Amino acid sequence: MWDYTDKVLDHFKNPRNVGKIENPDGVGHVGALACGDALTLMFKLNSEGRIDDVKFQTFGCASAIAASSALTEMIKGLTPDEALKISNKEIADYLGGLPDQKMHCSVMGQEALEAAVHNYRTGETSSFTESEDPVICHCFDVHESEIVRVINDNKLTTVEQVTNFSKAGGACGNCIGDIQKILDRIIAENSPPAAVAERPMTQLQKIRKIEEIVDNEIRPALQRDGGDIELIDVRGDDVIVAMRGACIGCASASITLSTLVEAKLREFVSPALRVLAED
């Protein structure tokens, strides 16, 4: 027994807006009886171009009936463009959630709405989801574009999830390999490029960078108080410096080396650097 929410059961037992509309402005058909699920959705617009009446007829399980009923309630008063922004996830959320294995029912509602809006705009009566792209699942007549869409829209990562959202692969299983290939391709396309490891600086590059930071970041700060600094040598990660000006003999010179000089060089050049005073 499926774990249905109270709202799913309510829309299943007391479906809203079941029936037909005479001379609808838009009508969409998705699914097929042979595949176990079929839905027809139709709507009528008012003088302001908003959905004034909407009806549905469906053949399917409790989730299919509930999702169709919920969708009709959700789109009342919306323009077709506004209605198209409703995702299958929002349909499921409106019902308090659907079992994972029944998420395809919310997708069917979304596709029926798109087919109806397509019919309203173009006059075409064929299903909007039918296309020239390859059929991946012949048992349920699921095209590649439908699989790509549910993967992208719902951020799916496994074949089992794709089956839950589209029914593809849910019968004979011969298409599971093809579904996995599509899934792998989309995951690869959506993955951020691998970070290119930066080459470590050469010793010459390190010395030039240290000179730049000393001249532009450290020396001006010391000179404001009458002090100065001279870069003596760079030995590996050891930076040898000499304090000049007012910094000579200053009781705070050692603190300045660590809190200013070494801190700046570690921030802008390398955290491995160590600053030493000239002997």
Provide tags for this entry.
alpha+beta; 279 residues; 2 domains; 10 helices; 3-stranded antiparallel beta sheet; 3-stranded mixed beta sheet; elongated; GMP Synthetase, Chain A, domain 3
Describe the SSE topology:
Blueprint: H1 6-13, E1 26-32, E2 37-45, E3 51-59, H2 62-75, H3 80-84, H4 88-94, H5 103-122, E4 135-137, E5 142-143, H6 144-154, H7 159-166, H8 176-190, H9 203-223, E6 227-235, E7 238-245, H10 253-268, E8 274-277
Helix pairs in contact: 1-2, 2-5, 4-5, 5-7, 6-8, 9-10
Quick structural gist:
With 279 residues, the protein is an alpha+beta fold. Helices cover 45% and strands 18% of the residues. It folds into two domains: 6-190, Sufe protein. Chain: A (Alpha-Beta Complex), CATH 3.90.1010.10; 203-277, Fe-S cluster assembly (FSCA) (GMP Synthetase, Chain A, domain 3, 2-Layer Sandwich).
3D structure, described in words:
This protein has helices spanning 6-13, 62-75, 80-84, 88-94, 103-122, 144-154, 159-166, 176-190, 203-223, 253-268, and strands at residues 26-32, 37-45, 51-59, 135-137, 142-143, 227-235, 238-245, 274-277. The protein has 279 residues and is of the alpha+beta class. Helix 10 (253-268) links the parallel strand 7 (238-245) and strand 8. Helix 2 (62-75) crosses helix 5, helix 4 packs across helix 5 (103-122) and helix 9 (203-223) packs across helix 10. The radius of gyration is 33 Å and the shape is elongated.
Q: How many structural domains does the protein architecture include? A: 2
Which CATH architecture of the largest domain is right? Alpha-Beta Complex
- Overall spatial form: elongated
Task: Report how far apart the termini are.
Answer: 83 Å
Helix content: 40-55%
Order of strands in the sheet with most strands: 1-2-3
- The CATH topology of the largest domain turns out to be Sufe protein. Chain: A
Number of helices: 10
How confident is the prediction overall: mean pLDDT? 89
Low-confidence runs: none
Query: Which class best fits the helix and strand makeup?
Result: alpha+beta
Number of E strands: 8
Main pleated-sheet profile: 3 strands, antiparallel
The proportion of residues in beta strands is 15-25%
Strand and helix order: HEEEHHHHEEHHHHEEHE
CATH class of the largest domain equals Alpha Beta
The radius of gyration over CA amounts to 33 Å
